Amino acid sequence: MTRQANAIDFWRGFALISIFINHIPGIYYTRFTHANYSLSDSADLFVFLAGWALRYVVGTPGRQHPLWYLVLRLGGRALTLYAAQILITMIAIAMLAATAVLSDNPLLLEWHNAAAVFQDPIPTHVGLALLTHQLGYFNILPLYVVLMFMAPLFVLIDRYAPHLVLPVSLAIYLVTLAFNIGVPTWPVEGEWFFNPLAWQLIFVLGFVLARQDGIGGFARQHIVPLRIIAVPIVICGAVVAYNDWWWFDPTKLPNPKLFFLISKPFNSPPRVIQFLALIALFSITYPYIKRWASGLVEFLSMLGRNSLYVFCVGSVLSLAGQIVRYLYQGNIYSDTAVLILGVAIMAVTAWLPELREDIKAGSRSSVASSP
Predict the structure, then answer these.
(1) What is the pTM for the complete model shown?
(2) Phi and psi for 266 in degrees, rounded to 5?
(3) What angle do CA 44, 295, 1 make, to 5 degrees?
(4) Which of 361, 360, 320, 359 is nearest to 339 (CA)?
């Protein structure tokens, strides 16, 4: 079965590889990811593309699915993501426990907010089930789950008052930052690393920019001047990301400070603005990459088409990479082995579902053609 590569799947695959690398702190190859030269990173891209993909789920005017169907489909997707989060979290806990036992180092049980799982397991396991307790580097899917449950609200507004979708999202975002509204964790006191009340803006921006009219149509009609404006923004973002002392002193910023800080948990305005500039500037590159590196486009698109499988496996592989670096005092050789093996396993993970679909399609064709 022939599958057509496209920009959305390509960039989603790019984000998956970047997230895998960036989730292994200290690995040599993280210096080549754009997170080192940008205020935003692949998490922004991943969430933005999820919002963009939602537009295709909703359908085009005149060919839209009934609201009840969309609610069921989005709710089902949220439950699938929830199940995936529980699975990879349990695997991560088991990996940390096994490594601690085999290396005779109980300090590993405290990695990535896992200490409460072993020291106070009863309430902590309730928290894991409720998504109110999250392991470090395993906190993107909980955000995605909440966004899927919020999606029907934005779909409903888009259906009957499309011009209000972005203002409603922006209002939620601004109130969240103005009053520093966080989503609490439990039983360990704290807040979600990815605040869904703030991150929903990137999701909605993907959703509205995917429209052929409205703000999406405006962006397409004025993409050249927007790219010209984006150049200095991207350059300034790279300078600040590389030398964070170029940014304002947090103690001297006016209130509410979250409007001016570079905050990933709240996805503050400097990150959002720089991300939009990055999208505007680099969206022009896909046709050229497809022309000159078609194999790379096909490969990353395959990862992007099977993003949930690849993300889950990549998350577990990132933790495995951290453990390898810890045990073998990470160096260029072990880092290279981790990268090659990790990407290879992610590729197989993406290839297997497509192989299964091809086999099913072949079986149906054989049945249809049989006398």
Answers:
(1) 0.94
(2) -100, 0
(3) 95
(4) 320
